Each structure stands twice: as C-alpha cells, then as structure tokens.
C-alpha cells in the first residue's frame, strides 16, 4: 500500500470513527433523557444515570454507565486525539507499514483505557453522592451552591500554571523514535501516558460536564468544542483563558441563582 493510499485510508477511518461515536453518543443521550430525572430538594433534578433500575444488578448498572461513558468520551476526545494518532501512523509507515494500523489502534486503546478507569471512579463517586443526597435532604439543598462553586473553580483552573503544563503536554505530538516505532509495549505505554496527561488537562472541563449533566447534549457539545479549541488552536493559552472566563461567568451565574432560589 502506498503512503498516499495509507493516509487516505487513515483519514477515512478517522472520519468514520468520529461519525459513528458521535451518532452513538447522541443516541445514548436521547435514551437517557427519555428516562427523566428525579426532583430533589433545592430545586434541582438528579439524573437517572446515578440510579439502578429495578431489573439491574449493580455490576450491570456500572457496565451500562461505562459503555455510555466510553462512547461519549470517544466522541468528545477523538477530534483532538487524531493529530497525535496521525503523526504516529505517518511516521511508522516508513519502517513498519504492515503494523501501522494495528499499533495506532493500540495507542488509542491505551489512551481510552485511562478514560475508562476515570469513568469507573466517577461512577462510584456519583453513586455515593446520589445516595447521600437522597438520604439527607439538607445536604441535597446545597447541591446547586456546590455546583456553582465547582464551575467557578474549574474556570479559575484554566489560568493556572498546572493547566498550562498539562495543556502543553497534550498539544505536543509524539516523538516517533525507533523505540516507539518498533516496541509494542512502548506504544501502549505512550497511549496510557497521553491519556493520563489528557485527563489532567481536562479535569476542570470534565467537572463542568458532570455538573451540567453527563449525558446532556448541549453540555457535551460545548465541552467538546472547548477541548478541541484549546488543543488545536495556534495559540493555546488565550483560548484556555477565554474558556476560563466563560466558565467563571457561568459559575457566578449558578451561585447567584442558588442564592436567590
């Protein structure tokens, strides 16, 4: 297969993957929204995603959440991950064209494994918080105030050196040295390490998504646009700051709404 044909195949496969994951995420969101939500003290609604259906076991409920989480993360993260995968795929073509596709998939698998682990942790915390909110109405009433503080804090995080450090790591394309081209274990480790960097970089935006509604299409679209913009824009820091300003404004709005409720 020629280099040009290989690149075209990669681009076609990437476009198909993004389209399929986006369609699946939209379908999952629509399905979850049709299940409704539970009114809670304080004037907010708890998503049914944090509750086990009568016919479900807890392992089944967790597996259902993780499948939705991974589909959603794939749809959200692929636009900013593809340049990394493309760089690796293009470089490995020169020395090991037969295994370029498989090793590129391995790198992506390591990356999304990290997001799967994070999803499992989030599900456990979400179940615990949902249980607390249902058992203690007084604590449930402060949830809108806590949500505003989380969004405000996530916006402030965009201005920190910590965010700048991890954003720079996420924007860096892989240095496809001989070890990364030829060593399968090294490819896997790079995918995992890049996933960890990405989770750190997206910590604030992920928190905003969870507060706004993990399966809310509008929140997904906004967070996806924010992540993609700060990863791919020529100048990362001004974009990150603009996102921070918008998030802090939203947080202040939520706090004001909670105070007046």
TrEMBL record:
| TM annotation in the entry | 61-85, 105-132, 138-157, 239-260
Its signal peptide is 1-19
- Which key words are in the record? Membrane, Signal, Transmembrane, Transmembrane helix
| InterPro entries, sorted | PpoB2-like (IPR018688)
**Keyword Cell cycle attributed:** no
- What is this protein's record name? DUF2182 domain-containing protein
């Amino acid at each position: 297969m020629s280099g040009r044909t290989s690149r075209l195949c990669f681009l076609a496969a990437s476009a198909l993957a993004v389209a399929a994951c986006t369609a699946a995420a939209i379908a999952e969101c629509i399905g979850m929204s049709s299940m409704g939500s539970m009114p809670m003290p304080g004037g907010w609604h708890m998503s049914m995603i944090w509750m086990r259906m009568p016919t479900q076991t807890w392992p089944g409920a967790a597996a259902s959440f993780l499948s939705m989480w991974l589909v959603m993360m794939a749809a959200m993260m692929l636009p900013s991950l593809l340049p990394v995968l493309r760089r690796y795929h293009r470089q490995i073509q020169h020395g090991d064209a037969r295994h370029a596709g498989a090793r590129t998939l391995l790198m992506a698998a390591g990356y999304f494994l990290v997001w799967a682990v994070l999803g499992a942790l989030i599900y456990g915390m979400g179940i615990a918080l949902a249980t607390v909110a249902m058992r203690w109405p007084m604590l449930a009433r402060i949830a809108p105030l806590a949500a505003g503080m989380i969004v405000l804090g996530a916006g402030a995080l965009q201005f920190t050196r910590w965010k700048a450090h991890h954003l720079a790591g996420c924007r860096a394309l892989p240095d496809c040295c001989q070890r990364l081209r030829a060593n399968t274990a090294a490819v896997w480790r790079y995918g995992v390490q890049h996933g960890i960097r990405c989770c750190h970089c997206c910590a604030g935006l992920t928190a905003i998504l969870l507060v706004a509604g993990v399966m809310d299409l509008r929140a997904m679209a906004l967070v996806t646009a924010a992540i993609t913009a700060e990863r791919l824009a020529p100048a990362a820091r001004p974009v990150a700051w603009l996102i921070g300003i918008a998030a802090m404004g939203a947080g202040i709005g939520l706090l004001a709404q909670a105070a007046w409720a």
